[in-house]
Known about the structure:
The complex is a heterodimer of chains A (351) and B (324).
Chain A: E1 20-22, H1 23-37, E2 41-45, H2 61-65, E3 70-72, H3 77-89, E4 93-100, H4 108-115, H5 118-121, E5 131-136, H6 151-156, E6 161-163, H7 168-180, E7 185-190, E8 206-208, E9 222-225, E10 230-234, H8 237-250, E11 256-260, E12 263-265, H9 269-279, E13 282-289, H10 294-305, E14 315-319, H11 328-334, H12 338-349
Parallel strand pairs in A: 2-3, 2-4, 4-5, 5-7, 6-7, 10-11, 10-13, 13-14
Antiparallel strand pairs in A: 1-8, 6-12, 9-11
Helix pairs in contact in A: 1-7, 3-4, 8-12, 9-10
Chain B: H1 3-29, H2 53-60, E1 68-71, H3 76-81, H4 86-93, E2 117-119, H5 127-139, E3 146-151, H6 158-169, E4 174-180, E5 183-184, E6 187-188, E7 209-212, H7 217-232, E8 238-243, H8 270-280, H9 286-309
Parallel strand pairs in B: 1-2, 1-3, 3-4, 4-8, 7-8
Antiparallel strand pairs in B: 5-6
Helix pairs in contact in B: 1-2, 1-8, 1-9, 2-7, 4-9
Amino acid sequence: MSLTDAADASHTSAPATTRKLSTSKAMVEAVAAEMDRDQDVFVMGEDVGAYGGIFSSTTGLVDRFGPQRVVDTPISESAFIGAAIGAAVEGMRPIAELMFVDFFGVCMDQIYNHMAKIHYESGGNVRVPMVLTTAVGGGYSDGAQHSQCLWGTFAHLPGMKVVVPSNPADAKGLMTSAIRDDNPVVYMFHKGIMGLPWMAKNPRSVGPVPEEDYEVPIGKAAIARPGTDVTIATLSLSVHHALDVADELAGDDIDCEVVDLRSLVPLDTDTILESVGRTGRLLVVDEDYRSFGVSGEIIARVAERDPGMLAAPPVRVAVPDVPIPYARGLEDAVLPTSERIRNAVFGVMGR
Amino acid sequence: MDTATRLDLYRTMVLIRTYEEAILREYHADKKPVFDIGAGAIPGEMHLSAGQEPVAAGVCAHLTSSDAVTATHRPHHFAIAHGVGMHRMTAEIFGRVDGLGKGRGGHMHLFDPDVHFSCSGIIAEGYPPALGQAMAFQRRGTDAVAVAVTGEGAANQGAFHESLNLAALWKLPVVFVIEDNEWGISVPRSASTCVTSNADRAAGYGIPGTRVEDNSVEGVHRAASQAVARARAGDGPSLLEVHTLRLWGHFEGDPQAYRHDLDDVPGRDPLPTYEQTLRDEGVLDEAAVKSVAADASERVEDAIAFARRSPLPDPKEALGLVFA
Lengths: 351, 324
């Protein structure tokens, strides 16, 4: 079963279900269903076994499938992510977890020079059907090396799909799609949307999730909230902040349209352009670093189509080009908070 | 060692040398009068394996097309010894449509899934994917093995150490092969490596480590036999280091000004040495030598002709094949 935007369980009426799951449980449900369905699917990573994943990305899997299929690895990212590549080349469908995206520095060669390039370099003769899952995001004082999003860096490098779910229903559907995709898919989940009991969470980290198997298409954005005055193009945890701000500003007679990107590679340029074409105003909210990344890319794609679409200069709310600070007040000053988003909406509306 | 095996080893080495000499010729032919690395029918860097034939011949003699080999930026000898299709390999080196990668990979990125062969231009990074191939073989219940090849310089890269630990820990059917050709481009092993033999490092990972000292194809064959058998039996990985010889430069065009041993090099060429041994022991005579040389030449020139006949890729095709 595939959900199109119209039938998107995440943001419009879900197929009749009252069952709610946290994002982490929804992700795990998808992995478990695929592991049931296909013996070639297995999981590898640090603390994915008995611990269930540092951010609950694999809770319960080892009990159900055993340590041969849910494998705790040493702290050897190059080795085990490279091993996932080799297993995928031989036709298995591994899910390798990079515990924090911030750790990509120790293994990026395997990711961008091997996982992402083998299909192309081999003229399409060798496929790498693996998923690389990784936790992203800040807001809980984990400091500069444990709070980054970095999706712009991954999206910038050709050869890997990049998906970033914002909510439980999409988390499940995108995971299913990612596992079934014959290409390498980087699945980036924000710690703040996982619904962890030990981290402050947005209420939307728990939401309705269909019980049956379904795929959310990779490369398709979703209109999280239709509106007429301004397009807020965003992803991940920032979708929730944008929706909060949109609800609030409805009272100020500003009708925000929130576009949940859901995928960065491929990027759903058509949906973005269609939305901006209607609203005439663009605000991009991106928890990655401001310069040389996703926010600039989206604005560039609009400008390339027709700068005349924009009634006002586009605005971006992103993390400024500084390492993310530790102290609460300092970190809040750099994150794309609801307050910054609200001010930005006023700005782009000329109020 | 029986005569048939010795002749096979000799033939493989002659085939590799003939191939590398032909590529050398083709590579330089149209880069004159002044060497322009980007010019000609084979543009780009070229890393030829002359002198290192014994490693490939000796190791691959124990492999079948079900076994995997991950090779380096200097891959041709292992590709040939492992049975990569010579026509399509050559077409890929010439960047043609009929190449293994349809012209997208080139000489350092040869992929032949029929024989589980791949290579990479990033030092030491061929080790981790070999682990994964070994994992897949193990999970599927076959006794296929993965042979992972690097140079001695790679033994100082992080991925090397991670891979040895992980393969040992999980008892993966891997054979780690180090080609110690003494030079990491221009830096001799003594200036890069804290131990005199990387085989000694194996002990740090609890796996057997062997060093073949004299670039002898039969020495490699013997050592590889044990390592491959150990892996096939499910007893885990081994490290096999071979002290070999880089007959030519690191890359074609390398003036090797740093290389103080150049005068000694031709005398250390393993091929004439082995040929002489086989002649002395009556395994080869003049007719056999000529016959092997002629066969090799015919095969190689046929592959080059195939490559040259193959069309260049259409630039409009450059954007495709990123995703399946």
